[in-house]
Amino acid sequence: MQCPKCHAAMHTYNRNGVQIEQCSGCRGIFLDYGELESLTRLEAQWGQQAPPPPAAPGGYPPQAAPAPAWGAPHGGGHHGGHGGHHRQKGFGRMLFSS
Amino acid sequence: MTTSATGTSGTGPSVVRALTAAARHAAHPGAGHPPVAPPVLCDACGRDETVLADRPDATVVRHESAVAKAHAPATDPAGHRARLAVAAHPLLTGILLPPLPVPTPQVSGRPVTAWPYGVPVDPDRPDEAPWEEAATLLARLHAVPPAALAPLAVPPTRGPLKAAQALSRMRAAGRHPAGADVERAWAGLPAWARGEAPAPEGGSLCHGDLHLGQLVRHPVPDGPWLLIDVDDLGLGDAAWDLARPAAWYAAGLLAPDEWQRFLGAYRSAGGSAVPPDGDPWPRLDIPARVLTVQTAALAVAKSAEQGRDLDEVEATMIESCARIATLITELATGPSS
């Protein structure tokens, strides 16, 4: 699936049991019919259980660290394998040079 | 384990000889060293030297408990003296490694400095990198009031200029398929961030070149971590000191938990570059884009100069540039829906 705004590839993530598509380019999020309601319902349930945590600015899920609009997709297991791979290659060298 | 000081290339023997003398003097103060001509061993301890680095911009020789460094030939002498004096200033105790005296402060037009030897971060163990300590040291550095350093005239930082130099080096290395993405990301940055217009005022004491090679434990082997390298020390916007880790995080090289440890420690230590809570990216976005482009440009330049392909990590920085360029195009043309 391609992002309707920037035409980069969109990847599927599972957030609290709801499948969402997020653009790998602009990080915009596409929700299918009913998914916004599902998220709203989950949010309401969460609100009844405990005081809500401070909202992460930029509309990202509360557990994710804020990232810039041009950031690589992190977490959700999507790039997990990649991360480990980078570390075995030039990862160290990159972190040690000007 | 040691590389003989005579076995170097790239630097004239006079530079290594002067560094050897400076390092021996710093390691054995008061021993009184006659002029040395390697491979003559040190008359105080009978040992020789290790060349830790030999690049056009820096040559570093270690002798026992001390290292001596020849700085870049183009180093501005007045700015260098001010930066060195900052490192020696009592307000920087526990933040920056202080220098040791040198017998001759210059060789072949290059400033020479001497420092205690400290244990660096192990490049083979990036998972053990001291992110919290690095962040805390930066927060403390940024909290040093510049007025308290008077009468030292600390020069301004040169973040945009260094990035522009990286672009020049990439262009000089010849055409490269990855160059287009780097150029597009660069072209979309504000003129001030490219060094083509005055930057907004920033009055914090900054390190100017933070990476994991800029931390050592002193005293050896398990003293506290300290920042080293005064070559880019200056007054500027403190957010630029966080920009390289921010760029690694945005590229996917630094895991979210590592970035959060770094950022969280910086905030806990009262760091002034970002608000104490909430989204730090409004402050980090531009400098992190600049450092992304700078890192990518240097990667392209080095791979071209060395006649090799980009490695996977370098390619990741090019991908970051492509995303930055896409975003710029989108902002320029407006949303399509």
UniProtKB/TrEMBL annotation, chain A:
It comes from the Bacteria. Residues 76-90 have a biased composition (Basic residues). It holds the Pfam family Zn_ribbon_TFIIB. Residues 47-98 are annotated as: Disordered. Residues 50-65 have a biased composition (Pro residues). Residues 2-40 form the Transcription factor zinc-finger domain. This is Transcription factor zinc-finger domain-containing protein.
Automatic annotation (TrEMBL), chain B:
Coiled coil: none annotated. Transmembrane segments: none annotated. Residues 81-270 form the Aminoglycoside phosphotransferase domain. It holds the Pfam family APH. SUPFAM superfamilies: Protein kinase-like (PK-like) (SSF56112). Gene3D superfamilies: 3.90.1200.10. This is Aminoglycoside phosphotransferase.
